[in-house]
Design goal:
This protein has 5 helices and 5 strands, in the order βββββααααα. The chain is elongated, with a radius of gyration of 18 Å. A hairpin with a 7-residue loop joins β3 and β4. Helix content is about 45%, strand content about 15%.
Length: about 170
Amino acid sequence: MFDKGDYVVYGGDGVFRVEEIGPLDISGIPATQMFYTLKPISGRDSTVFSPIENEGSTIRPVMSKEDAKKLIDSIEEIELLEIPDDKKREIVFKESLRKYDNFELIRIMKTLIRRRDEKLAAGKKVTALDEKYYHIAEERLYGELTVALNMERGDVVKVVGDRIEGR
């Protein structure tokens, strides 16, 4: 169970702060059912209400600072995704994103950087599909690392981005 003020990752929606814990005053919802009231840290004005006893919920704590540092230190060893052919590329990316795992986000980003470099070297453009999945992975990864490391996003992007890009 989480406490008020905790930071959590809620599914594929990013990092949220637990603002309240308790019942909702909404018709049709039992007063005995408890919810987390979650506010995104990204500046969006949306609020999420997640039942505390929802076993299917994909809510987890933000990684610790130590785990974030270990993740960053392991970037070079994280392997690229295996993509059998271009037609299955989106399926592989979606499956990786569904795991809500930062190693998978790095795998997506590293794979797409390699594809980008190969395309550009061949005089071709990067596809919109590749840009879309890179952006999704980047937003999720940097959002969590920003909170875990208590750093500004730009600093996280510089440190992590350089390692992902192999610089």
